[in-house]
Each structure stands twice: as C-alpha cells, then as structure tokens.
Amino acid sequence: MKWAFRWVLFAALGGAAWALWPNEAHKVRKGLEALAADVSFSPRDGNLARLASIEAVTSRLTADAELQVDSAGFAARTLSGREEIREVVAASRGLEGGIQIQLFDIVVTLGPDEHEAKAALTASARSGGTELVAAQEFVFELRKQEGRWRVRRIQAVRTLQK
User: Fold this and answer.
1) Contact call for residues 156 and 71 (beta carbons, < 8 A)
2) R_g of the chain, CA atoms, integer Å
3) By 3-state DSSP, what share of the chain in percent is helix, strand and coil, each rounded to 5?
C-alpha cells in the first residue's frame, strides 16, 4: 500500500512538473504575446517608454525579417528587414489614440529540428477609445536564434476573396 501511494505521489509530482515546465510551443506563444504588448502603446506613454518599446519590437525580429500585408481595403505592401519594420513601428507611435493589439487562437507548429516554427493566429487592433476593432488572421514564421524565438516572417491571410 505504501509503495502504491509513493508511485501515485511520484506520478502526480512528475505530471505537475511537466505541465509547469515550458515547452518550445509555449515559449513561442509567450514571445508572440510579448511582441503584441510591445507593439501596443498608450497616448500617455512618454518618449522613453515609446523608444524602449520600439527597440523591444525590433529585438524580437530576425535581421532579414519580412512583413507582408495584403488586407482588404489596403494596398499590398511588403516590409523587408528589421530596420524598415522599425521605421514603420516608430511612425505608428505618432497615432493620437494609441494602439492596443490582442492575439487570439494561437496555434503553434514546430519544425522537425525545433529551431523553426509557424504560428497561425488572429490579431485584433483597437485604436484609442473607439469601438472600432480591426481583426486579421496572420501566419508567423519564427526561427530560434541565440536561444530566443525571433520572427522571420509575418504574412496576413486573406480570408474573404472573390
């Protein structure tokens, strides 16, 4: 009886440790949520906070990162390289009402060597205090560099086409 209790206790502790230990897919999700938080800003943020968040965004990108936006109502555009994306993020800080980004339904697929991953998700953006919310599906391609997951490519998914 004592042995059975010990084995049950051992299995429960092992299961709890496994559940609490972050796997690579969990790390990718947390990194994407942190990226959304870094892109978001409030109109009350000071200049140093805005500069810090811009640097945080670019630190989450690979040097050859690519952002492809092809959403309904907007002209297709591709931003190539960390610096070009940085310029657009910095320019967005001039928006009067700020931006709040939220991510939903993040599905992560790891590559065979666990150094590459894809994440499909839905992002919503709210500007200022308005009720207007824009939502878009995206596919993120990530690469593990120097022990951190960095975004290599972001592509908008066109869901409603004629």
Assistant:
1) yes
2) 19
3) 35, 40, 25
Tokens of 84: 């070009």
Q: Is 78 left (phi over 0), alpha (psi -120 to 50) or beta?
A: beta
CATH number at residue 44: 3.10.450.50
Count up the domains in the chain and report the number.
Answer: 1
Does residue 35 belong to any structural domain of this protein?
yes
Residue 115 counted as domain residue: yes
Give the pLDDT score at 133.
73
Cα→Cα distances 79→15, 67, 82, 84, 144, Å: 44, 5, 9, 6, 21
Q: Whole-structure pTM over 0.90, yes or no?
A: no
Indicate if the pLDDT at residue 55 is higher than 70.
yes
Residue 36 inside a domain? The answer is yes
Q: Is 98 exposed, middle or buried (0-12, 13-18, 19+ CB in 10 A)?
A: middle
